[in-house]
Amino acid sequence: MITVFQRNDTDGAVCCVAALLGMTYNDVLKKMFLDWFSRKNFSVRFEELKKVLSGFRKETMEHSVFNRDLNLTGIVEVSYKEDGQTKWHYIVYDARTRQFMDPRKDPPSEYGYHRFLALA
Question: What's the CATH code of the domain at 111?
Answer without folding.
Answer: 3.90.70.10
